[in-house]
Amino acid sequence: MTWGHADGRSGGHGGERILIALGGNAMTAPDGSATPDAQAAAIEAAMAHVADLVAAGARVALTHGNGPQVGNLLIKNQLASAVVPPVPLDWCGAQTQATVGVMVMNALERALAARGAARPVSTAVTRTLVDAADPGFAAPAKPIGRYFPEAEARRSMALGQVWKRFGDRGWRRVVASPEPLEILDADAAAVLLDAGHVVVAAGGGGVPVARSDGVLRGVEAVVDKDLAAQLLARRLEATTLVIATDVENAMTGFGTPRARPLHRTTVAELTELAAAGHFAGGSMGPKVEAVRRFVASGGRRAAIASLARLGDAAHGGAGTVVEG
Predict the structure, then answer these.
(1) Apex CA 59: angle with CA 311 and CA 271, to 5°?
(2) One of 25, 72, 77, 249 is an active-site residue; which one?
(3) Which residue of the set 66, 71, 72, 142 is catalytic?
(4) Does residue 142 carry a catalytic annotation?
(5) How many other C-beta atoms lie within 10 A of the C-beta of residue 133?
């Protein structure tokens, strides 16, 4: 499969198309603080790296995590439930897409202007299609929100939520994390990208929706943002996918004396390493699977790298790089 237009361009106004998936470290302070000031400072720092790529001529689309932001909204749900009705999880996803999107727009526009490379920046609030019959709904396992004492968890469980104990740390709510099937509003993001915008889309993996009797409805779930990112990258005809995180590389043998950083690799090797259990399901596993799927489906290059090495990773010079 080869992406691009008949004239050989990667689409739009020229320049390599790069989809950047920003991890939680780009949204919060180093200590995990998600106060408004901490979020703004983290996003400002992240956008400096993104602006360097845009200023160098790349056509950039962005997606991002939203775990801390959704966690904050869930706390507000609980604390204010006697005053205002709690909102469902898909609403929380939509709200955080818009909030983070606006913060990214403001910070990136400032960073681009400082480099003499002004571009319009836009956010598309995006839905992600999932299957209502996905097995994840039968066995919710994705932790969200904060840890709580058992008594608080039991009160929420009485309302139909699923909670799980995590040792001495306490109880956390768990929800389904179904397989993303399609970024439904990717066409809007594509139009913006073609028009010369830097576009933010599918934040937090997108607002999860499923079809019931032919009608789309929001569902209580969390979509993995890295798996959604590779779908968005393919739809936007990106040549490169970069998953920016807080480590320099994916590791094989992580947590053992045989641990080693994985630098350049192939789809076949990643498939073998994943099957052998080298990548934890709740952390590095989805990132590895996302880059593997992207290149296996025709992408030129994908990388997992630290945010500080974003520019180098986009050109295959840093992080864990897999090329087609």
Answers:
(1) 60
(2) 25
(3) 142
(4) yes
(5) 9
d(Cα 107, Cα 101) in Å, to the nearest integer? 10
List, as one string, the DSSP characters of 209-241: EEEETTEEEE-SB---HHHHHHHHHHHTT-SEE
Rounded Cα distance, 281 and 287, in Å: 9
Q: Of 204, 205, 225, 311, which is the active-site residue? A: 225
Predicted TM-score of the model (pTM): 0.90
Q: Which member of 11, 24, 67, 93 is catalytic?
A: 24
Rounded-to-integer distance, Cα 9 and Cα 50, Å: 22
**From CA 298, how far away is CA 240, in angstroms rounded?**
10
Q: Which of 71, 101, 287, 311 is catalytic?
A: 287
Give yes or no: 106 in active site. Answer: no
The vertex-314 CA angle with 128 and 303, nearest 5°, equals: 65
Angle between helices 225-235 and 284-296 (to 10 degrees): 20
Q: Please, which pLDDT band fits residue 230 given cuts at 50, 70 and 90?
A: very high
225 given a catalytic annotation: yes
Q: pLDDT-based confidence at 12, cuts 50/70/90? A: very low
Of 94, 29, 101, 106, the C-alpha closest to 68 is 29
| 287 is annotated as an active-site residue | yes
Contact 118, 55 (CB under 8 A): no
